Structure formats: C-alpha cells, structure tokens
Amino acid sequence: SSSNSSFSRELRDDLVHSSSHTASNKAQILTMPQFNLRDNLIKCELLKNEDQYTYLEDFSIFLGTYNVNGQAPKESLSPWLNSTVLPPDMYCIGFQELDLSKEAFFFNDTPKEMEWTNAVGRALHPDAKYALVKLVRLVGIMLIFYVKKEHAEFISVVEAETVGTGIMGRMGNKGAVAIRFLFHNSSICVVNSHLAAHIEEYERRNQDYKDICSRLQFRQLDPTQPPVTIMKHDAVLWIGDLNYRITDLDVSSVKELIDKKDFETLHRIPLLFLQFHFKDVKFMQHQAEAFTITNDGQVPCQFEFITKPNEPTYCKPWLTANPPKGFIAQGASVDVELEVFVNRSTAPKLNSGAEEIEDILVLHLERGKDYFIPVTGNYLSSCYGTSILSLCNLKEPVQEMPQETLRKLVSAEMSLGENAVSTEKPLDIPKELWMMVDHLFRNAIKQEDIFQQPGLRSEFAEIRDCLDTGIPDSLPGSNHSVAEALLLFLDALPEPVVPYSFYPQCLENCSSASQCEKIISMLPRCHENVFNYLAAFLRELLKNSASNRLDSKILATIFASLLLKSQKKQDLGEKRKTQEFFHHFLVQGPS
Amino acid sequence: MEAIVRDVTEKNGNTAALASNVMAKQYDVLFRLLLLGDSGVGKTCLLCRFTDNEFHPSHISTIGVDFKMKTLVIDGIKVRTQIWDTAGQERYQTITKQYYRRAQGIFLVYDITSERSFQHIMKWASDVDEYAPEKVQKILVGNKSDEVDKRQVATEQGVKLAKAYGMDFFETSAFTNHNITESFTRLAEQVLAANRKDLDLLRMSVNDELDLSALEEEEGLCDRMRDDQQKGCWC
User: Fold this and answer.
1) Neighbours of A285 (CB within 10 A)
2) Which of A11, A178, A258, B162 is placed for a possible disulfide with B140 were both Cys, Cβ 3.0 to 4.6 Å?
C-alpha cells in the first residue's frame, strides 16, 4: 500500500492546469479556493479546446465479489481471479462476511483480513506484476485494490472510507466500504457493499443504498472543499452482496430494460424567484429540494454559498447545499440540492422553539450578483431530542402541547435545574420511554437478535409520530424497529441518562459494583429512575437469552455507549470502562 | 472502461495573453455606489435607466445584490461607477448591511407616493452611519416624480430632510428619465471630491490609472484574514 505517495504531488500539479470532463465534474474542479477572472478565462479556453489535448484510452478492471460466510480460504482463488486471457489493468476484489465473530463485530479486528488478502495476492494473473494500492475493511466487508505495476504512477489521490448501516445505522455488520482514486485524469470510485438480507426486505436494502450514497463521504485534501460523495466521480464501480433478487425475469430481458432506462431530468427553476419551504420537518426525516444554476453568460462562472457574518458556516447545521461551490462553463448547468435533516444535535433547540427552520442562503457568483435564497419550514417537535426532565413534566404527547409550554419548561429547567418547574408531581420516567420499553417487554422478550438487527427507517418514522402525537396501546412496526427507536431515543437525549458531569467518576469507579451503584443513586431523580428502569428491563431480556441470543457483554456494549457518553471523543480504553460500569447492573440487581 | 488522459502543457501561453488583454482598464478610477431604500421604491428601475436607458414597468423584487457598471467623465477623469442594487425587503436587511462597508457613495431612495418609504429613510440613514465607511457620500432621492396624482411626500419634505442630513436631494423619475443622469453624476462628483486628495497623492506616485476599489480590495483581504469566520467575499 505504499505505491502512491511519491508521484501524487507531480500529478496534482498537472491537475491544477487541467480542466474536466463531465458536467457534474465541472462544478468540482475548482481546486483553488480563490479564482480570478484570468484563471476562469484560461479554464474556459482549455475546456473549449479539450479535444486537442485530451485523448481517451481503454483499460480493463477486474471486479469480483465473494461472500465467504466467515470461512478461511481453503483453495486457490486462481480459477476465479486468473480467468482472463490478458492480465487486467486493475483488480478490485470485494468480500463480505469475512469474519462472523463477536470480536470482529465489536472491535473491528480480525485475522481473516490477512488470510484472504494473501489468497488474493497469490492468485492474480501471472503475466503481470501488481501493486496493492489500498485495502479497506469494515467488520466483514473488505475491498482490495490492485493495479498493474506500469499504471501505478498514474494513480493518485487514493482515499478509502466506510459506512455502517447495521443497527442504529452504525454497526458494521452491514454497510459499505469504498476506495476512490484518480487514474490519469478520470476520477473513479469503487464501492463494495453488503445490503440487508431476506427477499422481503427490499425496503431496507433501498434504505441501506440511500444511506451509503449520502453518508459515505471522502474528505478532500483541501479542507475548504466539500467532501466528495460516491456519485461525484467520472466512474462508479459498485460491487457486493446486494441481496436483491429478481424472480420473474430472465437475465437478458433485465439487461434490455436497463439499457432502455430513461433517467429523470431535473426540473429547471428560474433563479430569480428561488425560495424553499420545507413542510412538516421531523426529527431524522430527510427532505430535499433541488434547483439548477445555469450559466447563460459569455464567460465561465464560479459560484459559492458564502458565510453570513457572525455565523460559522454558510447555512444552519440542519441544512446543506450540495455542491456548496463550483465552476460552471458558459452554457453549462449545475444542479444544487438543498437538504434538511434534523439530527440529535439540532433537535433540542428546534423542539423547544428556541430556533426555527429559517435561514437565508447567499449564493455568490464570482464577479457578479449575490442571490438570497430564503429557506423556511415548520418543525414538528418531538420527544426525540427533548430532555428527560422536560418529558417527565409533560403529561401530554409533545405535539399536543402548545410549543410555548415546552419552551417554558426548557428555559425553567436551564435556570433552576431539577427543582424547578411545576408544582405538580412529575412522571417517574418519560411516558415515551415507558411505551417503548413496555412494548418490547410484552412483545419482544424472546425476539431473536433483538437490539442486534436494525429496524426500518419507515417504521421508525411511524413510531416517532405515534409517540409524539398520542398515547396508543401499542406501537406500530416490528420489534426490531421499536428496539432501534428506543436506542435512538437514548442517543438523542440532550443530556445523557448518566449526565456528563457524572461521567468522570463513573470511569474512575468502574471496577467497583458498589461504587457504581452509589453514583447512580446520586443522579437527578428522573435520570436515576430511567437508568434503573432500563437496567431492570435488560436483566429481564437476559433471562431469555436462549431465545433472544443476547448476552450481558453485547448489551453492555450497546447500552453503555448510549447511557454513559462523553463530550469528548472516547478511546477504546474509556469505552471498555463504560462497558464495565454498566455491566455491573446487568448481572445483579440493586442491592 | 475509458480513462481520460490529458496533456495541458501547450495551450497555456496563448490563453494567458488573451486574459491580460481583456483585463486592460479603460478608465482612470473606479467607485462603488450603493442603492438603498424600501422594497418597491424603484432602485432597480433607476439603475436600469441610468446604465441601459431602459424602463421595465412591472415590479420584480430584487432578491439579492446585483451591480451594473457605467463610465462617466468628470473633469476629464474617466470614472467607472460600479452601482450596487440591493434587496429592499426587511427580511434581507441583516445580510445587505454587510455590503455597505465597501461603498464610497450611497443613494437613499424613497418613493414620493409612499409616506412610509419616506419615513423609513431615517432607519436607512442610521444603518448607513453604523455600517458604511465614515467618508461615505450620501444623496437623497425621491423617485416616481411622474406620479403626481399619487404623491404623498411633498418636495419640501424631501428638501428639508436632505438639509437636515446635509445631503443633496433629487426628485427623479425612472419612467420619464427625469434627473437620472443628474443624480448619479452628482453622487459620483461628490465621491470624487471626497477622495480627491488621496487620488492626487496616488497620481503623483503612479501616473498610471488607479483603482480605488482595488486598493480597497487589499484592505478587504486583510479584514478577511483578521476575521476567520468570514469566508468568501462581500464585494
């Protein structure tokens, strides 16, 4: 994996002068932060005469994918990898389920990586020499990229990224790994993904695919440049165990249909009247609108969303514009997508009404006008991202309350702490939490792989709406979806169940069960209740481990990361201490 | 699959020469002027009339900031004016204020058929005091002077206000092209006069053309370096 560093600088210097090829790329080739008119003109001339200094050349890439189901390599891979007459110019080999052990799952560490890499290395085409350029692995999903020795000097900007789509959208038993690189002047991205299994789970597979496309981002060398997503490459090569099955059609008719496919063209909007309203924005529910910037002028143009004064970024954290800057040749267009996504860090202030879905983007055209693009929307408050204390003081569903009530609760809580708020006795624990745990207790205590399989995004949306608008007898969705909704609820709390201020002493005392119990008894009352309630529920689950296949280690891993959070990044040692802390409460009840 | 292979060494020389030709300046000095005032008072129409001698009767709100250029000859000096048109709507004002600090001259525009727009001039003027450079030149403009039947603001009121602020005053009509060139030229003259000393000093050292706003640009860059949070530019 050492072959790319020496020549990448030369190549990059070349690229600064070069122009680009596809329309999508024209928006990205601005590798220099500040461009002047002269550069623009040069770029424009270069684009016009691209044919004079550009030529196309064919190369062959061997793509292979193999779900090895946790097995070690037993026989030579040569019949597979050495099946072409001529040696391929590159090899991209993907594996799935490399290692099914718990160690691989939780600590992302496996001896199988070496075993299979060696097996591949031994079986490449014997008529050429290959260099291993990059290897990337996420739990059992691995991608190896080899290039023929004589091409190595034309490979540059090699980057690898991974994204997990397992439970809570993070665990790496499902997801994708990807490698991007430049080969001469073409940008190429290779993706190896393992999508959700089972024939009826196509919805989850679609969700996984969308998640991979949006969440897998390569950082650029220039930190002012936005990260590059998979689809922003000249060529995308996607391999993997996709688990899709087409049962009613034969291969040839499927291929024919693919050829005929007409891609939806984006609707053009005159820039002058741009404004966007996002209706009923909800927690973790992605919404997007697109518009087209067309350069109908005589010179190439650079655009950028610029930062307003006293604000850290060009837009609010719940909003993104993609791409946020770019270059448009005369007559060309760029599609810009505005996305709204409220996550755990932006939800608290929106819930309480301290902030609203309201922003004005300033789209700056280099040496030209600035467009103001107002973005508005209405946010539907949620129990997701609302504090335990506030929820204990809300007897009604969050959306039944006037927002003013919630806002007052939050501000009283900020100034006075636990002792504040109403004269009425608060609930022991948030009713939303009770509804989810009670649902699981009644329906999922023996559910196989509970808390280990992800739920469906669409079902999460139903569960969230249900919790926020009513007090139903039972929740919609599968057990796995309810379980994930519970984990997301804990993850979204503005103050974790074990408040940040208690975190250091939890680490210090993690080895002593009695000390740990003592710390918990000192938590604010409603936090203590939630902690004990959850621990008691999990102990019930463990009594049924024969059916649900849980053990205390798995539960400690999952729940410690949600209940004991640090405001800084935790290292592995710290994580293990939080697991040790919580583990005491899983093996014995409070004394 | 195909890969793109490029050789870019040859063409660069020619295009650079072309670029520098285009860049050659055909003026002596460049000023930035800014149009301010409530939404609908006719800022965009004034600008279109002045630079292109056109009038578009339908009102399309400016949502953003745009500029047009026109060269005037004052005392034998070729003055290139870069005139910035701003969105008048209130919701955009926190953003448009950021453009004030780079202006050398400002038009405060109201609509003689709108008492409200006239009253708001006070607000606009105090924003200018707060955000524009100290040396900025101002001029008061009462637009739509052709709409005599709908007049709500008497000429005397305009004169009085202008006097209070120490500004020159014009009633204009973008529709009939009344007082347009006069008002733009007057502001340009004032800016020229205000910067005369600096210009003469500079002229002695560089007998070449000079660009006030280019000098400012360097200043602006420094500003930006001091202020890490601000990315991009507000020119």
Assistant:
1) 17
2) B162
